[in-house]
């Protein structure tokens, strides 16, 4: 339930800075779509992350949030951090290069955010199936976090100079 709420375009934009293509196009024309319920109706584009987390807490745990909404928002933050950490650990298997550039190995092991497609190699598909077998939330988390800056390792290149 938490990940389905976090998957809403306004929440993705607010918490992770992720915008869907449709939202980017309509951002200047309109505000949040009126068909979304719950958090999107109460979380405005100008709200802070804490206000967004508090509105998620009110939707998921209305009774507990009435008592202490900040505590429930903290629990949601912890749950998201835990799932993100587990996703990062498991997704390392998809971020390996394939073992070299010889003709017997597939390079790279990339899976798009919607899952394997016709361009995804057999080895990457097998790893994907194994990851989904081990953790049922992997597909949802992959769709959320594969393009986040905190998930993609930074690339470091070194120039080749006259001494190597």
Secondary structure: number of strands = 0
Oligomer: single chain
- Give the overall form: globular
| Beta fraction | under 5%
The N- to C-terminal Cα distance equals: 53 Å
Which spans have pLDDT < 50 for at least 5 consecutive residues? 23-37
SS content category:
mainly alpha
Compute the number of structural domains: 1
Would you kindly provide a brief summary of this structure?
With 164 residues, the chain is mainly alpha-helical.
Structural notes for this entry:
The chain has 164 residues and is an all-alpha fold. The chain has one domain. It has eight helices and no strands. It has helices spanning 2-6, 9-16, 21-26, 39-42, 49-60, 62-91, 122-134, 138-145. α5 packs across α6 and α6 (62-91) crosses α8 (138-145). The longest helix has 30 residues, at 62-91. The radius of gyration is 19 Å and the shape is globular. The termini are far apart.
């Amino acid at each position: 339930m938490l990940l389905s709420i976090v998957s809403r375009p306004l929440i993705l934009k607010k918490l992770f800075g992720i915008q869907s293509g449709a939202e980017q196009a309509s951002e200047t024309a309109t505000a949040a779509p009126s068909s979304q319920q719950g958090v999107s109706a109460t979380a405005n584009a100008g709200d802070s992350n804490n206000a967004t987390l508090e509105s998620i807490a009110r939707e998921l745990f209305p009774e507990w949030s009435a008592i202490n909404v900040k505590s429930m928002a903290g629990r949601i933050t912890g749950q998201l951090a835990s799932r993100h950490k587990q996703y990062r650990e498991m997704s390392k298997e998809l971020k390996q290069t394939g073992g070299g550039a010889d003709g017997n190995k597939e390079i790279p092991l990339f899976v798009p955010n919607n899952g394997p497609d016709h361009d995804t190699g057999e080895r990457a598909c097998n790893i994907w199936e194994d990851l989904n077998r081990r953790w049922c939330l992997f597909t949802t988390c992959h769709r959320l976090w594969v393009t986040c800056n905190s998930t993609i390792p930074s690339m470091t290149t070194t120039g080749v100079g006259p001494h190597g």
